[in-house]
Amino acid sequence: MKKRKIRVCLYVLIIVLLTAIISGCSQASDVVSDNDANIEMLNVSYDPTREFYAAYNELFCEYWKRENGQNVMITQSHGGSGSQARSVIEGNEADVVTLALAHDITAIEESGMIDSGWLNEFSGNSSPYTSTIVFLVRKGNEKNIQDWDDLIRDGVEVITPNPKTSGGACWNFLAAWAYQEVQDGGNEEETREFMKKLYKNVLVLDSGARGATNTFVENGQGDVLIAWENEAYLSIKEYPDEYEIITPSISILAQPSVAIVDSNVDEHGTREVAEAYLEYLYSDEAQRLAGNHYYRPFKENILQEFSEQFDLNMNLVTIDDFGGWDEAYRIYFDDGAIFDQIYED
Predict the structure, then answer these.
(1) What does the pLDDT average to over 172-196?
(2) How many CA atoms lie within 13 A of 280 on its CB side?
(3) In whole angstroms, what is the distance from residue 113 CA to residue 5 CA?
(4) Greatest pairwise CA separation for the chain in angstroms
(5) Which 3 state secondary structure label does DSSP give 220?
(6) Residue 344: its pLDDT value, please?
(7) pLDDT per residue over 194-240, tens digit each?
(8) Where are the domains of the chain?
């Protein structure tokens, strides 16, 4: 009888304790302060930033939680830079855009979604990291590709994306054009002929830079990939015994740009966190993270920390040598402009 009474008492005690625990959890979940609420944000970016922003988003979320006590949920979208810009214009509700070139963001500005002056909103023409254009070849470099003129030889199969949809492809085109202009003393007809031969050797014209990398690396097509420097390094990291990087004698300083999509952040109520998200890209922690993902940090002192990784003595032209992106796009990439003319011939 005593044992039964003890068991009953134990059961009652357990029920009381469970009730208290459940009650406590319920009360805690009912009280949600503003600082505990999730903030949702969308970053529409271009192809080769996938790995970098996967890491950066974690870094930023930790920073924001530490500083403000709020949780941030960041959704990422990737694709060819030109295609991504059009998707935002057509309704993809980006809070921020981190695209391959300023012209793609200017297109969003012209739609009325981004305020004028965005280029000067952040340091370095709103380019928190840079890159350049290199060649990725298979180990041993069987075709002995050393510079741009090797890409027009018979039997050399080239992989590069389409400048009509890919920002990286525009940088590729301009780097090749700059090289040939030096060789022929600025003779436009000769440069056009060179570019025509180069694009006749293009085996696959993918819509974006990552698609071009997959064509070359995963599908084994082509002899040479004209690539973002960071993409080439990522391929080497993944397949160290299969590929090597060739640095051409002339390339271009590629400046991916970032901007707040003003109309969307005002509608979403995310302006403060969106501004902080882009500003924090310039922090020492984020700059080193960019370097570790093979982008060139904007901050000179941190860039120098990666001097053994990057060739900092490359001969690089800039977009200013082409009159800026508006002028370059009008001359080379608009419908009916030089790229269309040479590619359709």
Answers:
(1) 97
(2) 19
(3) 74
(4) 109
(5) coil
(6) 84
(7) 999 999 999 999 999 999 999 999 999 999 999 999 999 999 999 99
(8) 34-130+255-304, 133-253+315-344
Strand ranges (E), 88-155: 96-99, 129-130, 133-138
Tens digits of per-residue pLDDT, 89-124? 999 999 999 999 999 999 999 999 999 999 999 999
* 254: phi then psi, degrees, rounded to nearest 5: -90, 125
Residue with tokens 């973002």: 228
Q: Under DSSP, is residue 63 helix (H, G, I), strand (E, B) or coil?
A: helix
CATH for the 34-130+255-304 domain, from 3.40.190.10, 1.20.1440.60, 1.10.12.10, 3.90.1720.10: 3.40.190.10
For residue 140, the 8-state DSSP code is T
pTM score, whole prediction:
0.87
Helix (H, G, I), strand (E, B) or coil at 234: helix
Question: Cα-flanking dihedrals φ and ψ of residue 139, to 5°?
Answer: -50, 135
Give pLDDT, residue 4: 37
Interacting residues of 299 by C-beta distance below 8 A, sequence separation 6+? 282, 284, 287
Angstrom distance (rounded) from CA 209 to CA 73: 27
Residue pair 95/265 in contact (Cβ under 8 Å)? The answer is: yes
Minimal CA–CA distance to 62: which of 275, 278, 277, 272? 277
